[in-house]
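User: I'm putting together a teaching handout on how multi-component assemblies are represented. Below are the sequence lines for each component of a complex, exactly as they appear in our records. Could you produce the 3D structure of the whole assembly as C-alpha cells, so the students can see both representations side by side? Please keep the chain order the same as the input.
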Amino acid sequence: MTTVTTPAPVGGAERSPNRNRPGEKKRRTLVALARSAPLLPAVLLLAVFLFGPVVSSLYGSLTNASLSGSTATNVEFVGVKNYVDLFSDPDFPKAVLLTVVFLVASAILGQNVVGLGLSVLMQSANGVVRGVVRTIVVTAWVLPEIVASFAAYAFFHDGGTLNEMLGVFGIQGPNWLYTFPMFAVILANVWRGTAFSMLVYTAALNDVPPEITEAAEVDGATGWQRFRLVTVPMIRRSISTNLMLTTLQTLSVFALIFVMTGGGPGTDSTTLPLLAYQEAFKFGELGFGTAIATILLLVGALFSVFYIRALKPEVD
Amino acid sequence: MTAPVLEKPPSRAAEAGSRLSMASPNRRMMKGLSNGVIAIVGFAFLLPMVWLVLASVDTSATLSVKWPETFSLDNFTAILTPERSLIPLLNSTLLSGGCAILTVVASLLAAYPLSRYKMRVNKPFLYGVLFGTCLPITAMMVPVYSLFVAFNLIDSVGGTILFLAATSLPMAIWMMKNFMDSVPVSLEEAAWTDGASAMTTLRTIVVPLMRPGIGVVFIFVFIQTWGNFFIPFVLLLSPDKQPAAVSIFSFFGQYGAVAYGQLAAFSLLYSVPVLALYVLVTRLGGGSFALAGAVKG
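Assistant: Of course. Below is the structure of the complete assembly, with chains in the same order as your input.
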C-alpha cells in the first residue's frame, strides 16, 4: 500500500521563497509538531504499557525481587545472577527443549503443513464441503482460548472422546494428558491454530494466476511437480511470513497448556511461558521469572526483525 | 487469535479448477480424493467442539462425546445467576468495550498523520508499531505484574483496560492506517482550502467514509480482549472484577470435576458473542481487505 502524500493542509508555505529566513525553520518545526500531535495518545499508551514492561523486564531480571519476604521490599541489584542460576537449573534447559519441540511440531510442521494442505485440497473440492470444513476449522480458531482449552482437555482426557472412539475399535487408549502430555498439547495447538495458516494460504493461492499452472500442465508437469515447482515458489513470501507469525503466536501459548496439563506431570510439558509463570507466581521468584520473560522477549524480538525485513516494502 | 485474517471469496483460480475438473476422469478422481480428505480433517476438527454443545444440554455429562439421554436446559439455568456468570460476563463486556473504544480512538488519531503527511517520524513509528505486533505478550506478564505493583494498579479495572489497549494498539494502528490510505484525499483537500482544520476533516470527512473499517478494528479488538485469559488472570485479583474467561477457569477448578455440563454451558454462553461478532466482521469486511495488512504475500 502506498502512503498518500499531500500538500500541507495549513497552506503551501513550504514552497514559499522565504525558506531561508530565520523564523522559517522554527515555524516548520511547529508545523511538524502540530501535525504529529494526534500521535500522542497512542505514543503515551505504548510507551508506558508496552515499552515500560520491556525496560522493567530487562532491569528486573538483574534484581533479586520476590513476591513476599524481605526481598519483596528491599530489592537489590544482583547482576546476571538470575541468568547464571537459570542456566544451572535443570528445569530451564528442559523447558527450552520442550518449547522448541512445541514450536517445531505444532507451528512450523503442524499448522503450516495442515493449513497449506487444506487450502490446496480445498481448491479442487466441492463447494459445500469446502464451506463446511472451512467454517469448522475457523470456529476452532475464533473460540476464546480458555474454551478451546477445555474442549481439548475433554477430548484428550482419560475418559474423553478420543479414548472413547479408540475403544470402539477395541483399542485401550492411554491417558494422553499424563503419558504423552506434549503429544496432546501439540495436537491441540494444531487443532486451534491451523485456521490462521489456512486463511493465509487460501488468500495466497487465490493470487496465483491459473494460466501459469495451466501452462505447466500443458508442458506435462504432474500435479505434485506443479505444486512444488510452480505454486510453492509463487507463494514463497506468504510461506515465510506465515512461518514467522505462527511461530510467534505459538511462542506465547499459555492457557492451552495451563488448562490441559498445568505443565505436568512434573515438568514434562512446561514450556518457557509456563516456567516463567510458575517461577514468578508459584514460587515467588520474580527476578527468576523475569529473566525467563526477558529471554522470550529477545527471541520474539529476533523473529520480529526478520518479519519486519520481509514486510519492509510495506512501510517504505 | 492474534492477527486478523479474513476470508476471501474463492477466486478465478479456484473456479477455473473446478470447471476443468469435469473434463477428465483423472481430475474427477482427484476431486473425490480432495473431498474425502478434507471431510475427514473437518470431522476431526469438529469432534472437540461437539462435546461442548452436547455436554451443555446433558445434565449427566461426562468428558466424552455422547448423546444426552434427556435433553435439558438445566445446565444453563444453573449457571445463569449473577455471581456465577452474569457479573463475569458484564465484566468481560466492560473490559472489552473499554479497551476497544480506547484503542479505536487512539489508533484513529494516530493513523491520520501517518496516512496524510509525509513526516520524518512516520517510518520509525511504523517500524516500531510493526515490532510491537510481534511481541510475545504472554512472556511479558511477569514484568507487567511488577510494573503494576510499582504503579499500584494491581486489581484495577482501569489499569487493566489501559494495558489491554496498549497491547492491541500496534495491530489497530496498522489496520487503521491501511483503511485510511484507501480513503481518497481529494475531498479533504477541498475542505482544507475552505479553511477546515485537520481534526475537523478527520471527524467530518474521513471517519464517515471509513466507518466499516473502524467497525472492523473495533470488533477485532473486542474479540481479542474478550477471549484473553492470561492478562486479567494476572492483573485482576478480586472475583467481582474478573471477566468470564477467568471465572470459567476458577469454576473449572471448583466444580469442574463434577459439573461438566455446567462448565460446557458457561463456555458456550461465553463463546456465542465472539462467534456472532466474527460473522459480522466477515460480512463487514467482505473480501476487500483480505488480510487487513497483517500478512501480505
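A couple of points students might notice: Residues 75-285 of chain B form a domain with the MetI-like fold fold (CATH 1.10.3720.10). The two ends of chain B are 20 Å apart (CA to CA).
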